[in-house]
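re: ur question from yesterday

yeah so i grabbed the chain u mentioned. its 131 aa long if i counted rite. heres the sequnce exactly as i have it in my notes:
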Amino acid sequence: MRIKIKKVLSETSRQDERVSLTFIQKLLKRYRSSGTVEPKAHGGGNRAKLSSEQMALVVALVEEDNDAILVELCERLKERTGVKVSRSTMGRITQKLNLTRKKKHCTLAKNTQNESKNLEQSIGQPLAQSC
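ran it thru and got these structure tokens back, copy pasting raw so excuse formatting
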């Protein structure tokens, strides 16, 4: 049997067409047990941490307070559903749902007039802020 396998392996001319002996052994074992060499079905991955109702709640939480940080969203989700998720999981969930969390930034009001003209007027006066 090994001689036949080695012969088949040596007949392949390209390096990327070659397979390991272990692969052939596993293939033969599968053929003997199931009668086929077809690949097995994919086993799947981890189940989703949140149900569709809980995902809808995450959307509602972000809409209620889009300034909340991920840790705050995790805490609010735990308060309402009892399901604890990590900050990174919440980040992946919000990214999957295409939710953006807009932060409110306090910035100085833009000055539309020429600065040299306003320099005399603004000395000693507090700058206007908009939040």
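noticed a couple things. The two ends are 79 Å apart (CA to CA). also The beta strands are 107-108, 129-130.
anyway ttyl
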